[in-house]
């Protein structure tokens, strides 16, 4: 059985009180697709334990189904610490979005190390939406950045501006990815868009989470 590690945020409020956290829909949709295909899933976060979510993100039917699933909710709310994770146990790592990710995952050396190790041993690295922030500082065994020179996508600057959060986030994700050497591309706001670059799979926004999961299953089955 393949195993996938979901790397989620521990951040909820910034200094101004702005709430962000994990966007659970981008967890729930891939979770159910992967489970349906026989994949085992664990969760890791910078601080471990309960993963923060905004109340308004709990209304979607898929999210309600996720929290009604005993195993899913228990794993989500008891995420592992990075030091509790052995990268050799996993075939892939997935970074879901939610604005919380941009505040903590780029600075979490433990999770970045796990992602690099999974990729180095032939595993898959995936991200959707703001989850791409988790890729910014992932390094490979040779010291190079995982994303340098690779085709990918993530939440666009135009999408950030459209929802009025471009002045709230600590950095614009599209800009940061380009500055790190990624070959970034996107489509119109809110449209499904997934980029597969070998064993790196990225989705632009929430509309892209299922297609990302489908591409991940394809690669896992090929292995």
UniProtKB/TrEMBL annotation:
One of its GO terms (biological process) is methylglyoxal catabolic process to D-lactate via S-lactoyl-glutathione. Signal peptide: none annotated. GO terms for molecular function: glyoxalase III activity. It comes from the Bacteria. GO terms for cellular component: cytoplasm. Residues 25-218 form the DJ-1/PfpI domain. Gene3D superfamilies: 3.40.50.880. Keywords: Lyase, Stress response. Belongs to the peptidase C56 family. HSP31-like subfamily. This is DJ-1/PfpI domain-containing protein. It comes from Labilibaculum antarcticum.
